What does this fold into?
Amino acid sequence: MAYETIDWQQNGSVVIATLNRPESLNAINQKMDHELIDVLDRLRNDNSIRVMVLTGAGRAFCAGDDIKERDAGENENELSRDLSGPGSVLTNNYLSLWNNVDTGKPIIAAVNGYALGGGLELALACDIRIATTNASFGTPEITLGFFPGGGAPLRLPRILPGSIAMEMLLTGDRFDAETAYRWGLISHLVEQDELLDKATSIAERIASHAPLAVRAVRELAYGTNDMTLSQVQRMSAFSRWIIQQTDDAQEGPRAFVEKRQAEYHGR
Ligand code: DAK
It folds into this structure.
């Protein structure tokens, strides 16, 4: 299926989804909002896909919610979006589907420029973030008089040290990619022409692993935040036991002994 605001390209088991409204710095209008939901559904439901790379066309990753559409009143109003919006990616998906678990598959944000407001929140909801040297990051909502409703106040303090997260959230200032790299907001800093190669190579590396094991590791990493240590240990032992029963868990050691590349089938 083709989208109006997102370019979808699948190579093997890796999908590159490119936010594609460069004339608006890939701001999220309603159309993109709904298409992002569909992209997430596809990622979740299509077993031929193991990892997704999310990036932006042009000089931005994403400049956040479409302020012009909001100003023109064309966007769904805040109340309906918050409480009962029809599956808005800025509400349900950022906070639940994009909660790093529910798609069941890793997403790598390849940040090629501005990642602001809802754009930064998209990147925060991804498993891994890498960026180009000209990228910048910020939560300008506070400067516009509203609340970062796509998860930044929840996720930034979990990803960054508290003082840094609060400075971002409360000043609304933009921070450059060098700074983001130093803070650990991104794990690689690359030149523009290296971005997709780097993102794809990380994606392919992950996609070469047993999908059920990848899924179980993500589940444990994100799904246990509010558990006690002993609960996490039990869940970890249980996950290990389940994964140990899979065909893929036999295939890995067998391939090692036979000195060949393992072939995993997610069973
Ligand atoms: N929306 C609409 N159009 C945008 C845009 C945006 N967010 N950002 C940029 N554009 C448009 C510009 O208007 C301009 O269009 P034309 O004037 O050419 O028609 C074009 O993109 C190029 O932008 P500039 O000319 O401004 O380019 P510059 O390089 O000079 O500046 C900039 C780049 C990124 C610094 C600047 O464009 C800027 O400050 N943009 C706004 C960034 C921003 O404030 N973003 C946060 C939006 S608020 C929710 C969950 C989440 C959210 C909301 C609700 N719920 C759960 C309810 C999220 C909110 C947000 O993201």
Observations:
- The two ends are 28 Å apart (CA to CA).
- The mean pLDDT is 89.
- DSSP finds 13 helices and ten strands in the chain.
